[in-house]
Amino acid sequence: MSVMKxxxxxxxxxxxxxLRANAIDLAIGVTVGAAFTGVVNSIVQGMFTPIISAFxxxxxxxxxxxxxxxxxxxxxxxxxxLISLVVISAVIFFFVVKPLNTLRRTLGFDSDEAPTxxxxxxxxxxxxxxxxxxxxCTEVLPEGWSHSH
Length: 149
Hints:
This protein is mostly helical.
């Protein structure tokens, strides 16, 4: 009897990959992110750009451009994209990152306290930083052993 197993077909491998939870989560995240970006771009182009254009004295901020040697540089488009980037980043930070960080601190996942344990260099078991000998493998630990981690 052969020790080697039959290789999976490419289709079976792809199906296994596609049905993994992290691949599906990533696909959902990208789709929602693209939809969110479209909404933010519409808000920037429909609301923020006209406000900035009103102060700049131009009718259409998106069409701001300059010309050099028959080349047209559409810096209005670049400014729209930069404004969209700032708005998207601010929304993600204030409505996703900050609340999640607060939740993590509340649940005790993130602690501002200094660590009290480190892994033993010999057996990789977590032991107190003040230890001079590992309780699990009995390795004698040199002075300052935990600073190397």
